[in-house]
Amino acid sequence: MIFGNDRNQLRQAYINAWVKAQQQLPMTALEQQISDVIAIHPEYHSMLTPKNDSLLEKEYLPEMGESNPFLHMGLHLGVRDQLATNRPVGITALFQKIITKMSDPHQAEHIFMETLAESIWLAQRNNQAPDEAKYLNMLKRKLKAL
Description:
146 residues, mainly alpha, 2 domains
């Protein structure tokens, strides 16, 4: 993990990256990646301010209809890292095929994010390491369904 297990530190990194982007300050490569993801999510812009301390401690409860913006953005970053490294092998080609069908890279990322989250959940439920082959097969099935 880039920040260990400190949730508040991780969330603060998102805020810091967005503040730097807004102020056009120099950023690390990771901060640039974070700000790129935030930029495509205008619904998060107003909450990612240094004065929003409650954001660091907030619990997001799916059973109450809440979605965690940090998890969402983290999944974007995870998918983008997979695409940049083509790991698992073949994922970049699959992404290109989905973009061709959808013509919206952001929505294509969302398909990959949902599948990645499901793959991680299944691995945790089964007390196993994530299975790259199963993950790719899940993505291939989604591609066929488009």
